[in-house]
Design goal:
- The complex is a heterodimer of chains A (432) and B (391).
- The two termini of chain A are 33 Å apart.
- Chain A has a domain at 178-355.
- Chain A is α/β, with parallel strands linked by helices and 432 residues long.
- Chain A has helices spanning 120-127, 178-182, 185-213, 231-238, 250-263, 279-284, 313-319, 346-355, 360-365, 369-375, and strands spanning 39-48, 54-63, 66-71, 81-84, 89-92, 94-100, 130-136, 154-158, 168-170, 174-176, 242-246, 267-270, 288-291, 324-326, 392-395, 406-411, 414-418.
- In chain A, strands 1, 2, 3, 4, 5, 15, 16 and 17 form an eight-stranded mixed beta sheet that branches. In chain A, strands 10-11-12-13-14 form a five-stranded parallel beta sheet, sandwiched between helices.
- By secondary structure, chain B is an alpha/beta fold.
- In chain B, helix 5 (174-196) crosses helix 6.
- The longest helix of chain B has 23 residues, at 174-196.
- Chain B has helices spanning 2-12, 110-113, 120-123, 155-158, 174-196, 211-218, 231-241, 263-268, 291-298, 312-315, 317-326, 331-337, 340-345; strands at 31-39, 45-54, 57-62, 72-75, 80-83, 85-90, 129-134, 141-148, 159-170, 224-228, 251-254, 272-275, 280-281, 288-289, 301-304, 363-366, 377-382, 385-389.
- Chain B has two domains: 2-84 and 358-389, Urease, subunit C, domain 1 (Roll); 85-345, Alpha-Beta Barrel (TIM Barrel).
- In chain B, 51% of the residues are buried.
- The chains are: A alpha/beta (432), B alpha/beta (391).
- At the A-B interface, loops of A face helix 5 and helix 7 of B.
């Protein structure tokens, strides 16, 4: 199939850092087999697969909630709904690598139980082409979000307006180690000790597995069990859960990397500002970053060496092989304040990285496949590939052009946003 | 009891319009309301007819009704008869506050909270509501609701059904969903245990003592009134309950205006919904949406509730219902939504909610069309007793 692709590779990407023992996220429950398959085809658009180049004038065929076929010529089954997108661009739905209060009620407990698929913020996120988001519970929630409570639930959710079905991609999605950065010495002592205990537990498990393989177990010997408090740390070490560190400045980044280097686990440094001063250190630790490229922070005169923000941060990190996701300043949809700072304009946030020297391919990855990888859902979303989730956006122009609007947004194969019918955007005639 | 009632009626309504008989007690020979325009709700309108009441029940409704000799006759020329309204979502006479939290308190009973001496019962007579579904205070699985009529002065005589429904308030949170799921699972276990040991002592003496009302709900004996804060909570409720689809339960949603966003889902499930008769707006616009019309169009069953037992909300109730008609709800559906629909949701559709022979003689007389602004409520009969006559 792939030989049909006219691969226009915008950039060759280095091998991604390998995550130890990474498991694909659980599949969403399938609808009953007896249901007749629904086919939808997007015809004539330029298909930005993200992972396999751009296919000019291609066809994307959706079968139910999955991408079924991608190619220059695809046989369409009978009854396929055809949508002509000639002259437009088809991209994977954007992934908001950090979001607050988006699509959830303020609550404690599990994200899955607090979802609000009828929130207007979901509708507006779709209008911005965002189809998935990493959300955390707690804080103010609501329209403008709020700071998530430490230790609140986290999940990757889809913007499935109007239904809970297929809304949760992954839960729990990550754990916060914010206390390592902002807590006191006793917090750090406890975290380090927990990692130590978790490491011992993992070694015991390995030993158990080895002896079981060699038939050397004692009679009725039970596998080792970790205390509940240690459990998340065991998951970090095994690569089953991603740890997030809010680490803006260089000191915080160094502090986070110290732990990552000592225990070797998959970590995300969030809202990174001074990462450009430590690109090699971050690269060596194989830590991911999330950032808002146009965040401005003054250099600190009291510190020797470089400090403060740099618009070149993304480009600099890219050279050291650091993978990053780009996110807006307001990590939700806002209806007040200054326009263009929220999730409605995610590609423009990435465009600022291009302004700072980043290549377009990596910029696109930072809001699609890399963002998905950081969230732990890259086997499901983030690129246009056969078998992946049918989460797509159709743009009326270049993704990084400020004149470009989202025309259509699909989630799980369903058309959930159509600019021509949107009460918010249908009146805009942009002359394209 | 009737004496007591008479006595008080003398105080609140010293004189009925000149119709010969004294106000109040149903006559042994019956009561005839003649020459009235009758909105039966279930059987259309009668331009000018008679409602014949015998005891507490309606004996006959029609154009030509033979009036027995000795029957008290009220000439209702110029008046319009509507069945007494049913407010299925009320806290009348109950202590203040509706509880909260995510706990499970199914043995809470609104019946225990009701103060029969509450002044609200007298004041509310002028609103035209003749039957109330009183909800208990409590958490997620809040407790049992009672149905009462605002006459009688003693709980035992006021209350029609002490345990008429289960009240649930579902929030979009793990704690609330878990509380509901656990309550249902507990009841399910009890039902299964009883199936295994159909005779004798309770099969499982250690069974959760909170289970019985939930057990009755699962068996389909009583409905659940489920308060949802919005369309999202509705989906969370379905998510919990769809795991117990083997039970044929009856559910009534009490919902705010934005429930219309889930109209398709509600229509597909042929759900029953109680709303306030209020318009809402499309988000961030001044474009009006009529939630009741949207739900009715989708195929859901809609009932109204005024949202309060006394005060502006209660007294402007019919005006607000009329506005729903103005904005697209068929008049027929609006009249049903204040009478027979909530009566059916309370499981009392055979007894209340329309002007038909055999039903309770709960009758309202207006001096014009009840859905027109200048019409005023003139007289209220509950169980054949005149309990209010207009000021």
């Amino acid at each position: 199939m792939m030989r049909f692709l006219i691969a226009v590779l915008l950039a060759l990407v280095q091998d991604p850092p390998k995550e130890p023992g990474k498991e694909p996220p659980k599949e969403a429950p399938k609808p009953a087999e007896t249901k007749k398959a629904v086919y939808t085809a997007l015809l004539g658009g330029d298909v930005y697969t993200v992972t396999k180049g751009v296919l000019k004038n291609g066809t994307v065929l959706l079968k139910d909630d999955k991408i079924h076929r991608v190619g220059a010529s695809v046989d369409l089954p009978e009854g396929t709904t055809r949508i002509d997108v000639t002259g437009k661009r088809v991209l994977p739905g954007f992934v908001a690598v950090n979001a607050r209060g988006l699509a959830v009620h303020p609550a404690s407990g599990k994200v899955a139980d607090a979802l609000d698929p009828f929130s207007e913020s979901v509708k507006l996120a779709l209008a911005g082409g965002v189809t998935s988001a990493h959300v955390e519970l707690g804080g103010g929630g609501g329209f403008f979000g709020g700071a998530p409570a430490s230790g609140g639930g986290s999940a990757v959710v889809k913007m499935t307006y109007g239904t809970l079905e297929g809304m949760v991609l992954l839960e729990p999605a990550s754990g916060s180690l914010g206390a390592w950065i902002t807590g006191g010495p006793s917090d750090r002592f406890e975290i380090r000790e927990n990692f130590q205990k978790a490491r011992e537990h993992v070694e015991k498990e390995r030993d158990f597995d080895r002896r079981r393989a060699e038939n050397r177990l004692k009679p009725n010997e039970a596998p080792p069990r970790a205390l509940p408090a240690i459990d998340p740390y065991v998951k970090y070490l095994k690569g089953e859960q991603i740890a997030r560190f809010p680490s803006g400045d260089a000191d915080q980044i160094k502090r986070a990397l110290e732990l990552v280097n000592d225990f070797k686990f998959k970590a995300v440094l969030t809202n990174v500002v001074e990462g450009w001063t430590l690109p090699e250190e971050i690269g060596r630790a194989r830590a991911y970053c999330t950032m808002t490229v146009r965040t401005k922070v003054h250099a600190d005169r009291d510190r020797s060496g470089p400090s403060g923000s740099s618009i070149e941060q993304a480009a600099i990190l890219r050279k050291s092989g650091v993978k990053f996701g780009i996110i807006s300043i307001t990590q939700n949809v806002s209806t007040g304040g200054v326009a263009g700072r929220d999730l409605l304009n995610l590609p423009l946030e990435a465009a600022f990285a291009i302004r700072g020297g980043l290549d377009e391919q990596t910029a696109l990855e930072s809001i699609t496949i890399t963002a998905a990888e950081i969230c732990g859902v890259d086997t499901r979303v983030g690129s246009i590939e056969e078998g992946k989730d049918a989460d797509l956006v159709v743009l009326d122009g270049d993704p990084f052009d400020y004149r470009t609007f989202v025309d259509l947004t699909f989630v799980n194969g369903k058309l959930l946003y159509d600019k021509a019918k949107s009460p918010y955007f249908s009146h805009l005639k942009t002359g394209k | 009891m009737r004496l007591l009632l008479l006595l008080v009626l003398e105080l609140v309504s010293p004189a009925g319009p000149g119709d010969g008989g004294g106000p109040g007690a149903p006559q042994e020979d019956g009561l005839a309301l003649t020459h009235v325009r009758i909105l039966t709700v279930t059987k259309g309108e009668i331009e000018s007819g008679t409602i014949l009441v015998r005891g507490e029940k309606i004996a006959e409704v029609g154009k030509e009704v033979k009036i027995p000799t000795g029957c008290r006759v009220i000439d209702g020329k110029g008046l319009v008869a509507l069945p007494g309204m049913v407010n299925a979502v009320s806290r009348i006479g109950a202590s203040d506050g509706a509880g909260g939290g995510t706990g499970s308190t199914p043995m809470n009973a609104a019946y225990d909270e009701i103060n029969p001496a509450s002044d609200a019962f007298t004041q509310a007579l002028r609103t035209g509501v003749t039957t109330y579904g009183v909800h208990p205070a409590g958490g997620t699985v809040a407790g049992q609701g009672a149905v009462l009529k605002p006459v009688g002065f003693q709980k035992e005589t006021m209350v029609i059904d002490r345990s008429a429904f289960l009240r649930i308030t579902l929030q979009a949170s793990t704690a609330s969903k878990d509380a509901l799921r656990q309550a249902i699972e507990g009841a399910k276990r009890q039902i299964e245990a009883e199936k295994k040991n159909p005779k004798g002592a309770p099969a499982n003496p250690k069974a959760d003592e909170k289970a019985p009302p939930v057990v009755r709900f699962l068996r389909g004996e009583i409905p659940a009134f489920v308060n949802v804060g919005g369309p999202a909570e509705l989906l969370h409720f379905f998510q919990v309950m769809d795991a117990f689809a083997e039970f044929k339960t009856s559910v009534v949603f009490v919902a705010p205006a934005d429930i219309y966003k889930a109209a398709d889902e509600l229509g597909r499930r042929k759900a029953s919904v109680i709303l306030r008769p209020d318009l809402t707006f499309l988000p961030f616009t001044r474009d009006r949406v009529n939630p009741a019309a949207e739900l009715a169009r989708a195929g859901a069953s809609v009932a109204f509730g005024p949202g309060a037992d006394l005060g502006d909300l209660a007294e402007s109730y019919l005006f607000r219902v009329a506005e729903m008609v103005k904005f697209g709800l068929p008049r027929e559906a609006a009249l049903r939504a204040i009478s027979i629909a909530p009566a059916e949701m309370l499981g009392l559709g055979k007894r209340l909610g329309s002007l038909e022979a055999g039903k309770d003689a709960d009758v309202l007389l207006f001096d014009g069309d009840p859905l027109s602004a200048p019409a005023r409520l003139r007289r209220v009969f509950i169980g054949g007793l005149e309990v209010f006559s207009g000021e």
